[in-house]
Amino acid sequence: MAANADSAICMSSLTLRPEHSLYSRLHELKDFYCSQFGHEPEFFVRVPGRVNIIGEHVDYCGYPVLPMAIDQCILLAVGRNEENSFLQLRNVETKRYENFKCDMSALRIDLPQNSGPQWYNYYLCGIKGIFEQIQQSNNKPLTPIGMTVALSGNIPPASGLSSSSALVSAAVLATAYVHQSSPLDRKQLASISARCERYIGTQGGGMDQAIAYLAKAGCAQFIEFHPELKATPIQLPAGVCFIVANSLAAKNKAASSDFNERVVECRLAARIIARHMEFSNWRGMIRFVQLQEALQCTLTELEELVLKWLPKDIYTRVELCARDLDVSDEEFEREFLTVNTRHMTQFKLRQRALHVIQESLRVAKFREICEQTSLGSPTTKNQLQSNGVNGKSNGSGVNATNGAVRDTTIDSAKQFALLSQLMRQSHESLKKLYECTHVDLERLIALSDDAGVGARLTGAGWGGCIVACCDSMESSTKYIKMLKENYFKLLPSHLIERYGINDFDDVVFATFPGNGAELFELNC
C-alpha cells in the first residue's frame, strides 16, 4: 500500500495543550485506556464525521458529491500485543456499549436478522477488509497482531453524519498501521473502507469513506468516483456558513432495507435502459455513470431516455421479470436483489432515476457557483484554521474573515440565493422522487423555509439531520436560536433533559470544514 508524500497518512506527534479542541476528550480517552488495559496507548486515530452539502444518493450511481468533514469525530487509543491475535475493544460509554473481545485469526461478523448490527461489528468490518487487502497484496496469509483499542465518539449515531462509516474507517486505519510497514495511501484506504461497510449489508457508494480520508481544512471536497476516486478542494463562498440540525429521529440504514431498496431500484433502472439501448452487457451496467459513458451522452440526454424507457409510476416484480428483463423470478432475486430486499414486489424506477440525474446536475451547478464566487475572494488565515489534531477550530463554523466587511455586491447576493435554491430543490427531490424524508425532518425544513433559509436533509434520510445554508455569522446565529425555540425546546421531556443541558448545542450547530483522518502520538 505504497503512497507518495502528498497522499500518505503518516504518524505525527501532538503536544496537547488546554486550548486544543480535543484536549478534554483525548485526556479522558487516554485515562480510560490505561484503566482498562493497564498501560498507555501506543498511538491515536482521529476520523471525522461529515456533512454532505449537496449530492444525496448519487455516489452509488457513480456521480460526484460535495461533502465536508465536521468537528465531531471518532477517536481511538490503540496498543498492540504481538504475543497474541486478540482484539480487545472498549467504548468510553460503558453503560451504552458492551465490551468486546475476539480472536482475529478466526474473525466472524454475526449480523442479527431483525435489528441493527452491534456497534463492534462495524469495527470488525474494517479489520476484515484491511486483512483481505494485505493478504491479497502480499499473496500470503496474514498473522494477526493483537490490538487493545479504546474508543470515544461524539458523532450522533444514525443521524446521517457518517458515524458508522467513520468507525469502519478508523478501524481500517488503526489495523493497517499495526500490520503494515509501508506508508498508508489515503485514496486506497478510502476505497478499502467503502468496500468494508458492505460486510454489514449496506450497498453504499463510498462518499463517507472518501471524505473521511481526503478532507482538507477550510474547504469542501468535490469527490468523483468515476473513472477513479478523485477529490478536488472547493472553496466555499466567503461569509457562507452551514448549519447542521439533528431531528433526533434516528435511522440506522443497516437495520432496515430502505437504503438498499433505493440502490436496487437505481440499478434496475440503469439495466433496463441499457437493455432497451441494446447493449450486450446490460446486466453489468448497474450504475448510471456506466450507462452514460457507454451512451456518450449528457445528463440531460440521459434524463430524456429515462422518461422514454421508464414511463410508468410503479413497476411490479412480475412485469419486470416477464417483459423488461426476461428473467425468471429466481434469477431476478439472485442477480438483481440484495439479501434484505428480496421481499420487494413493486419498484419506482423512473422517480429514483430522475432524482439521481437531476441531483447530479445540481451538484455540478453548486460547484460552478462556488468556483465563480471564490475567484475574487482571497483565502484568509481564519479560513484555513483546522479542527484536526494539529490545529483547532475557530469555533464559529464560519468560512469568513475575522470580522472583515464582505463585498455585498448584487452578484454575490444572487449567487448565494442560487446556492440556497439548489439546496431547496435537492430536498424537494429527496422528498417527492426518492421518498426518504421523515415528518420531523419536514418540520425542520418548514421552519427553515419560513425563515428564508435554504435547507435539505443530509445523509441517507428517513430521519437524521438537515444541513442549512446561511449568508453570515449573524444570520446563522439567529437561525440557530429560532430552531432551538421552535423545534428543540418543544421536544419530548426525555430529549430535552438529555440535550437541553448545554442549550442543544450538540444537536444544532454551525460547522466548519476540517481535516481528514489522522494518526498521531500524544505528548502530554
Automatic annotation (TrEMBL):
Q: Where is the composition biased (Low complexity)?
A: 386-398
Query: Which intervals hold domain GHMP kinase N-terminal?
Result: 128-214
Residue ranges of domain GHMP kinase C-terminal in the record: 414-473
The protein's GO terms of the molecular function aspect are: ATP binding; galactokinase activity
Which stretches make up the Galactokinase N-terminal domain?
A: 33-80
- Family assignment from sequence similarity: Belongs to the GHMP kinase family. GalK subfamily.
Q: What is this protein called?
A: (Mediterranean fruit fly) hypothetical protein
- Native source organism of the sequence: Ceratitis capitata (Mediterranean fruit fly)
